[in-house]
Design goal:
Mean pLDDT: 78
Number of strands: 6
CATH topology: Transferase(Phosphotransferase), domain 1
CATH superfamily: Transferase(Phosphotransferase) domain 1
CATH architecture: Orthogonal Bundle
Order of helices and strands: HHHEEEEHEHHEHHHH
Largest sheet: 2 strands, antiparallel
CATH class: Mainly Alpha
Number of domains: 1
Strand content: 5-15%
Helix content: 40-55%
Distance between the termini: 12 Å
């Protein structure tokens, strides 16, 4: 399975900030209305999300806040990534000092929490968290942070490292840094488990790119099963 050229990506994946322009709302709304999703349906969304991330990452942009609430769907099944309020332009970051990093705790990569800097591989970690969210109806470490409803972003200042006063959020971030990785749902197929393990490498350099993940057997298997294809 290969990604389509960038011009087609632009046609199929619109990156927008305002949720009201999309008929079906976010995947978070879908979860609220219908409950957790099965693997095949999640795979169909992940294929499209990866295509969108590939386009962003080729443009040296990191989303920084990927989660179900920021993934919008249309009636014809297209996916649109939204809310770029905390996104990073890596080219711009090379020309200035990084003063803060933002995101939503349960979906944050460990290197972001540790102030080592966000990269395209940080979005891959967040994608893994989003897959768990779609499969179970809640993100990793939701048992700690069940009081956090909706968007709750936290900022970190390297010169004065101060965590949020929200105790549950601080515990979530502590666990993300200290644990080997988020707990993978027991009922995952072996192929999906492998996909998530690749997303959750603690070392960002070991995580595959969005383009590489599109070749993963879990997606290829479900791609055929659902007869999903790129135009």
């Amino acid at each position: 399975m290969s990604l389509v050229p960038v011009p087609d990506l632009v046609n199929h994946f619109l990156f927008i900030r305002n949720h009201r322009y999309v008929e079906n709302g976010s995947l978070a709304h879908t979860l609220k209305a219908f409950g957790k999703l099965n693997e095949k349906l999640v795979a169909s969304y992940v294929i499209k999300i990866l295509e969108g991330l590939h386009y962003l990452h080729q443009s040296d942009v990191v989303h920084c806040d990927l989660k179900a609430a920021n993934i919008l769907t249309t009636k014809n099944g297209n996916v649109k990534l939204s809310d770029f309020g905390v996104s990073l332009n890596l080219r711009a970051m090379e020309r200035r000092t990084q003063n803060d990093i933002a995101g939503t705790p349960n979906w944050m990569a460990p290197e972001v929490i540790e102030l080592k800097g966000a990269s395209t591989k940080s979005d891959i970690w967040s994608l893994g968290c989003t897959v768990i969210e779609l499969l179970t109806g809640k993100p990793p470490y939701a048992d700690i942070s069940n009081s956090m409803a909706g968007r709750y972003s936290f900022y970190y200042i390297p010169s004065d490292f101060r965590l949020s006063n929200d105790i549950s959020a601080s515990l979530v971030m502590f666990r993300i840094v200290e644990d080997d990785g988020p707990l993978i749902p027991e009922r995952c197929s072996d192929m999906l488990r492998n996909f998530l393990e690749q997303c959750f490498h603690k070392d960002p350099s070991l995580r595959p790119s969005a383009e590489m993940l599109c070749e993963h057997p879990w997606l290829k298997h479900n791609w055929i099963a659902l007869q999903v294809y790129f135009y």
